[in-house]
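Chapter summary example.
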Amino acid sequence: MKTLSVDLGDRSYPIHIGQDLLQRPELITGHVKGRQLMVVTNETVGPLYLDSVQQLFTGFELETVILPDGEQYKTLDTLNLIFDALLEKRFNRSCTLVALGGGVVGDITGFAAASYQRGVAFLQIPTTLLAQVDSSVGGKTGVNHALGKNMIGTFYQPGCVLIDTNTLDTLDDRQLAAGLAEVIKYGLIRDAGFFDWLEAHIDRLKARDKSALGHAIERSCTIKAEIVAADERESGQRALLNLGHTFGHAIETGTGYGSWLHGEAIATGMLMAADLSARHRWLSQADVDRIEALLQRAGLPTRAPDEMDETRFMELMAVDKKVIDGGLRLILLKAIGEAVVSGDFKPGLLNETLTSAA
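The structure predicted for these 358 residues follows.
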């Protein structure tokens, strides 16, 4: 087992990574506030891991909420299912919420915890690779809106993140690949050596080699924890974590939530960001080719869907969270391992990227 820390002063919290952690209550029960505990999961993950998680919290007053599974359910209506259960069971402000599932469950549960009685404790038990390396760490919570992804939410940190890599055994290949997109992102934005390692070990990761997965998860979480500790509310360098996300969120919104997985859209978005970087002569074409090859080897799409033309991209990117005072900011690459936040890209070159990707 490896334990990392997200250093946020008195709100710091551990990230435990390893096998068989769902059998180790001592790692997480000390972070429960009060006696009332609500586990939030979904109809796919619940049958697989809810019993184990309930055993972790033996002795607590435990209730559960089972949400529908899918990005299309990351809505205010679904959020209200959690509030309904908390109020019906008369949960007080000393309760704790536990998110058991992927990124949708984690984001909704965190938002519910931030909002219920103006803030209660919550814990993360992520069960997908994408949630383990990205959404469970850093405190971004929220829901989608028909006009934009993750546009309603808040920053709210968990008390603990428990990553049992055994849960990846039940993850389907498409979801595993989606998680690999976020893993690749960390190499692109901050660690060229890690990107090299991913090129050498991508087949082991796809084969679910536990040693390789453990290393990839640990390195990804380490990079994210460092960035979050330095810039919790995304006023500066935390924006680098959004490489490919402006393009990718437009794809998710434009195709209808759930049609493309988040990681699939981000993969295409990262290649678009690399393409735009190369058009500015910031990144070599050879590096763009390396990025595309690794994404393809991971089983990820690298072309935008047919319904996303240049006009549709621009419509949806205009409501991205990274738009400030009407100006769009993009995360681009100076090199593999070196990302920058840029608002001075050339619009004509952006149009070329959008046209070539469609």
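To summarize the output: The mean pLDDT is 96.
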